[in-house]
Structure formats: structure tokens, C-alpha cells
Amino acid sequence: MFNVVRPDETPASLQYRKKYDDKDVYDSLEKIFFSKCYLCETKEPHDINVEHFDAHMGNLDKKFDWNNLYFVCSRCNNIKLSKYNNLIDCCDPKQDVFKAIKHLPPATPYAKKVCVTAMSHDAKTAETQELLDAIFNSEHTVNKKISGSFLRKKVFEQYNLLLDQINAYYSPVATEADKNQSLERMKVLIHRSSPYSAFIRWCILEDEKLGPLLQHLMD
Ligand SMILES: [Zn+2]
Fold first, then answer.
1. In terms of CB atoms within 10 Å, which of 119, 167, 207, 209 comes out highest?
2. Which residues contact 139 (CB under 8 A, 6 or more apart)?
């Protein structure tokens, strides 16, 4: 997961309380979420939904509350439904959602699982870990099993972009210029706007040389 900075200004269409996912809402969410699903971090997914973080259950205040609307892919939305309603909030500036849950990427393209670990024992972090585990590792239905495999393969492809830079950085023949270029590219990969940034950041955090060099950029 990645933190999102939500502007105070509410999209105009919400005041009429007719649609909660009109174009102005969608466009604002797409911008602040960097076109990424807030749960799986897939960028520009095929199907995107405007979701209620706190399930509205018919409550119109919650239904049209700008602060309750999130950008999510349809697969994650379908897994979350109203079953997971006590999650850590990526829009809360006091909550570092990236540090709350450790994500480790798959070791191979068709790895059966990825590792998502809660880093504290509070109820919200535990429930978020449970949801993310279902999103990345779900085997409940044939359809979800296939799409989970597809998702893990996409994470692996992004992880490979990082490995290219790590290999270049640690190459015995790397010059200072090569190292700097690799570091600059790693900065792109760990930016909140990049796909699967939590997986990439945790790989770097776990590296005793790269972690201290790049940790300060993991906002
Ligand atoms: Zn998703």
C-alpha cells in the first residue's frame, strides 16, 4: 500500500447526492491515487471502481462523503466487499501504510504465493494484512486463482526492473556514474506513483547498503 494526499476541495458533483462516481470524482481520485488501485497497487487496471472505504450501508452521508471515496480495481473491490471494513487508511497522514505491512515479491513468475506480513498487532493492521493476503494469494475460486497468478506475475515483472538496477549497482565493473544512474532509477521504482511500490520499497529496506541510501525517500 501507499499513502495518498487527499485535497480538501470536494468535487462539485457530490453536493447533488445523485452519483458518487461522476467524472469529476473519478478524475480527482485517479490523480491523487496515481491511477493505482489503493490495495494491490496495479497501475491503470482494466476495471476501476470508486469504492466506499467505510461501507455506506445506505447511509447517504457516508455514500457521498468525499473522504470516504477510494480508487480501487474491480478485483480488489470484489474481494473486499463489506467484509473488510476496519482497515488502515492510506489517506490518513498519521498512518504510514507502507511500513505497516511488509510485502515481499514472488521469487519466480509463477510463484504460488507472495509474503505479506503485519508489522504490528493492532486489529486494523491485522485485518488489512488478511485482505491483502486474500488479494495476492487467493485460491478461493477458479477465477480468483487465475487472476491472483496474473497479479503475482505482474509484481514479479516490476521486481525484475529493480533486480536489473540492483545488479547494475553492485556489478564489479560499475563506475560511480553507473551506480548513480542505478540509484536514480531505483528512486523512480520506489516512488508512490510506481506500480507495486510497497514490494519494491521493502526489498530495498531489507538491503543493508541500499536501505540507508534510499529510505528517506519512502514518504
Ligand atoms: Zn487492486
1. 207
2. 145, 148
Residue 81 Cα, ligand 1 centroid: separation in angstroms? 12
Dihedral sign of CA atoms 86, 89, 92, 94 in order:
positive
Mean pLDDT of 139-150: 71
- Which residues is 104 bridged to in the sheet? 115
Is residue 104 over pLDDT 70? yes
Beta-carbon neighbour count of residue 18 at 10 Å? 9
Phi and psi at residue 106, in whole multiples of 5°? -70, 145
In this structure, which amino acid lies at residue 191?
Answer: H
Rounded to the nearest angstrom, the distance between the alpha carbon of 43 and the centre of ligand 1 is 9
The rounded distance, in Å, linking the Cα atoms of 99 and 201 is 9
